[in-house]
Design goal:
The protein has about 425 residues and is α/β, with parallel strands linked by helices. Helices cover about 20% and strands about 25% of the residues.
């Protein structure tokens, strides 16, 4: 009996320690770190621009020192005294996409990036790493943050952007908090934005597995008015004064709509509980973009708004890759064929066991011939990640492949569900 009592006491202590891990290292506030990513295709640099404190922490409070998605980059927070890793986050960035463009081989550029971490109680060492083409992670910056630093600006205490909940699954400390920002909507056009925000929320939550996990999400609508109506279209010589400063023609691609004004975006959200960002643009031109753990940005007036906002959220929230490809792009080198992609819905077969193999029927051929698609709903079908050859997806069609498909494939559904549970359990 004494032994059982001792075991019980030991387990209780372990549970208490686990429960108090967050409180042991962090306070209930957010440290926002603004970085500049700069350089060119050969050399990249990361520098700190600003540090600020937000009034609450609404991210995960468990799984603090682990990652479910590796990302194109990672941030590691370590206790400065012990060297113990107390928090990790992964990300992708517009800068890293730009590195693959011809322009990056000719000039240097810098891009804004903001990251949120729980506010440390003690001094921490923070490391920023970029993923290499070989799939390893290379240290780009190590710096120290002292939570007592008087130059850490307190934001989100005054002049908070007006906001409300389009969907409230629960308390912000236990839910995934998604902020929806207005872009290119004037003050008089806020009713139009509210309708678009409600549509975006409803469309995401009607897709599996979001539909079964609604109580784990909050969608907060932030009414950020713009001086001008619409968004910038550089190829037409049109430049607008908008809340987020977004524009089409990113990397000279007509429909790629992004914003490089990341600091401004986060300033608009200061004081609002958020971990993920959706930016809705007031234009009927087709386009958008989604960057993992950065933001989704999409247009609201185009007929394809509903499927596109879900697709782009698959990128920014789920870390999913595009499953479409171009038939003539046989030699596309977006993915190194000797490295397994970190995205959960593509494979080069280097480490397929880590992907959706558990969803396949026994005896499914790998790769799976397209003519057997009716027999094998989940397979290994060639074509994905912009490459027609040697990169594989799990299904013939998926929300991450076409706008006409009305659902995520089973591999994407599994990946999203795993991520939701990682954040909330």
């Amino acid at each position: 009996m004494k032994r059982l009592i001792h075991v019980f006491i030991f387990l209780n202590i372990c549970c208490t320690i686990l429960a108090e891990t967050f409180e042991h290292d962090f306070s209930n506030k957010t440290l926002r770190i603004d970085y500049l990513f700069s350089g060119n295709s050969k050399n990249q640099y990361v520098s700190v621009k600003n540090l600020s404190q937000l009034p609450q922490w609404t991210g995960r409070r468990h799984n603090l020192d682990s990652l479910l998605r590796k990302g194109n980059g990672q941030i590691l927070v370590k206790d400065q005294v012990t060297g113990r890793c107390i928090y990790k986050e992964s990300f992708s960035s517009l800068f890293q996409e730009w590195l693959s463009t011809p322009e990056a081989g000719q000039i240097d550029k810098s891009f804004e990036n903001s990251f949120l971490i729980p506010f440390p109680l003690n001094k921490v060492s923070i490391e920023v790493l970029f993923r290499t083409p070989q799939g390893t992670y290379e240290l780009k910056l190590r710096h120290t943050v002292d939570p007592q630093d008087i130059l850490i600006e307190k934001k989100g205490l005054n002049h908070i952007t007006g906001h409300y909940y389009a969907h409230r699954g629960g308390d912000s400390t236990r839910c995934i908090n998604v902020a929806i920002l207005a872009e290119g909507f004037t003050k008089n056009e806020m009713p139009k934005f509210r309708q678009a925000a409600q549509t975006a929320c409803e469309q995401i939550l009607k897709h599996k597995p979001f539909d079964q996990m609604k109580d784990r999400f909050n969608f907060i609508v932030a009414e950020s008015p713009s001086e001008d109506s619409g968004v910038s279209v550089p190829r037409q010589g049109v430049w607008m004064n908008t809340a987020c400063g977004s524009h089409f023609d990113t990397f000279y691609s007509d429909r790629y709509l992004t914003t490089e004004n990341v600091f401004k975006v986060h300033d608009l959200l200061a004081g609002i509980p958020y971990n993920h960002i959706i930016i809705l643009a007031n234009t009927n031109v087709y386009g958008g973009g989604g960057i993992y753990n950065a933001y989704t940005l999409t247009t609201t007036g185009h007929p394809e708004f509903k499927p596109v906002v879900v697709h782009e959220f698959g990128h920014s929230f789920g870390g999913l890759s595009d499953e479409y490809y171009y038939e003539n792009d046989v030699f596309d080198d977006t993915y190194s064929l000797d490295v397994e992609p970190w995205e959960p819905n593509l494979t080069t077969l280097v480490d397929f066991d880590s992907k959706w193999k558990n969803l396949m029927e026994k005896g499914t051929p790998i790769p799976t011939p397209i003519n057997l698609a009716d027999k094998y709903k989940v397979g290994v079908y060639e074509g994905g990640g912009y490459s027609a050859k040697h990169v594989y997806r799990s299904a013939i069609d998926c929300r991450m492949k076409t706008n006409s498909c009305d659902a995520f494939c089973q591999a994407c559904q599994q990946a999203i569900e795993q991520l939701i549970k990682f954040y909330t359990e």
